[in-house]
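Figure S4 source data
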Amino acid sequence: MPLTKTEAFASTVNPSSPAPVGPLFLVHLRMLAALAVAAVTLVLQACAGAPPAEAPLAPIELPAQFSASGEQVLPLQWWQVFDDPALDRLEALALADNFSLAAAQARLARARALAAQAGAERIPKLDASAQAGVSRADGTASSERYGLGLAAAYEVDLWGRIDAGVRSAEAELVAVENDLHTAAISLTAELANRYFELQQELATFELLSNQKGTNQRIAELIRLRFLNGQSDIDELLRQQQLVSQTESQLLQSQAQAGLLTQQIAILTGQTPTRKIEPGARTEPMLPPLPATGVPLLWLQQRPDIQAAFARLEAADAALARAVSAQYPRLNLGVDLETTASRPGALFENWLASLTAGLTAPLIDGGNLRAQVEQAGAARDLALADYRQTVLEGLQEVESALLAERRDQGMLAHLEVQLELAQAALEQLTFRYRQGAAAYLDVLSTLTSVQSLERQRVALAYELMQDRVALNRALAGYWTQQADDSRD
């Protein structure tokens, strides 16, 4: 079978008779390397392809500033702005023991190993071998034979194919590292939300207990009036129904608090039956509005955006690798070998051989071109994902700011409504006792007051969750140690 062009070229630089190592061997090595590079240069003239373009840092036009900003600088451990020791303890426990975060850390370790594996292609390969054998024919004495060998192989990265692979793996490592920061921020934000929801349920339970007491006292008043012939039986029944309704709401609030406690336990890596201490319940205090900063700088500190950009860089490098794979490859090899009939004579005579192989794709059915098109589409996809991530991040910040303004306005109006309803209830209760007001008016105003009181509690804690959403949208890396590790 006739040799291919590549095999014919390799046969000219891989003589079957190895030569001893010496000055002449080194001269041959330099001559063959120069010959191979020249041959590859000639082949390249028939190759087509263009290197990929670099991706922009800001893929869309960013606003000059966000719609609102405060002056307080958000700390890396952003939940500390709430100044709640119980929340701080839970966040520390979650960062240490949450299994989803542990999985993200394992993915980071795997990405580091893959990047190291890709970088190993830049280093020449060196293998050692050793043999020992004994042969004996019938009627003859046995003979021993020993051998040692070294084989070195190296691919000359003429077109940057290996370097592009390394850059792609390193960019993916940066992306996975940012994924870890994103997972930590998401975890701490989810835990903070569950914590404030639990605080809301505890406050609601306390409020419902007080409302139940009020309803029972009014029911007792109506019962006495009924016994004195001053009220009808339907008034007593309606008030007793309100007492029962409040008791039902108490059971619901208690069950919801238990469910939130279980969720907090899971987020902190504990079993659902593990008792969670929520800390002493205090009135929700919204911290000062944080400084939202300049969107361009915010873009560079959001880990999910940085992860999307790193994956764009990885896809860009993968495209460069696919383009370079169309070009010829130059592989150099050096083999050193020694054999002897006794171990002591192994190092007396070394034989060496040099190989230089040029491999050029000629006909592959369009496989390499398809790989380039696939890598190009993957880069376009990564660019679109990067742009979308930036847009969604901007929306998260603006939505959190809008929600906080809305809830602050609603809470202010709710306070006015509650104040007016309480004044009306006081007047109606007084008139009812004097027999000048109908019970249905008292009942309607009472239920309105109690509903407004529960809404005020819910809105106060919803504002805390609005701030959690804003801090999450603005947060960068989750610990100072993690941030320093990137330097």
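Figure S5 source data
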Amino acid sequence: MIVTNQVDASKSFMTKEKIMNQLKQNGVKEGMTIIVHSSLSSLGWVCGGEVAVVKALKETISKSGTIVMPTQTTDNSDPCNWENPAVPKEWWEDIRQNMPAYDPVTTPSYGMGKIVENFRVHPDVVRSSHPTVSFAAWGKHAEEITSNHSLDFPFGEHSPLARLYERESYVLLLGVDYDSCTAMHLAENRLPHTLSFTKGTAMFENGKRVWREFFDIDGDSDRFPEIAKGFELEYGIQSFQIGDAKCRLVPVKELVDFTYRWFEQEVEMFDDK
């Protein structure tokens, strides 16, 4: 029934080769460094599903380039902040004591989608160490991008996002909007006087499972699509189709810098009032 519904809802019949051709026609090139955010269902009916999509990405970029995907495990977090669903307060301490520690090899991503999960388990993919907001990478710069991922402020200067910013990297949005664009959180982290909060997570430390607290900012990805409208106008970014999916290919550095300026101007406007 699920397959039938997907077939009925699809306008496109997609294969690995069709995805590769459409990626190349719209600027995705061999040797690029890209961070991919994706929705499998948005592409239409894909022969081979997420396996075909990951193969298409890897064969298009090749090992001379690098593919990065967010492999977040936000279920490994302090239950006092859970909302969908919330859990009773009397459970909180038991959850903190019993949540399995993050393991970059075995811990599945949470809410990231089928494409990410298939990519994550490839034997030649490496994953960063952050127990809540890790990134997985494959290709030439995979180790460099994922290493030394800071526990505190994990979308900040000591994160894979900052390493992507430093090189000529691109965001590839496959059927998702900018509210899925993790790179924009780097701009939030660079803002002065940003409030920080304490969060909790289960992780391994010297081979032992521990519950650790870390500092992070309270990011707001719901505002990213609004910011991106101005960005696309300024830089002439055009969306394109891959199958049924509306997609975009966006330079990381320019997007982060624009987002930073947007927030800066908002603060200045607020201060002037």
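Residues 2-73+109-189+221-272 form one domain. Residues 101 and 203 are 4 Å apart (CA to CA).
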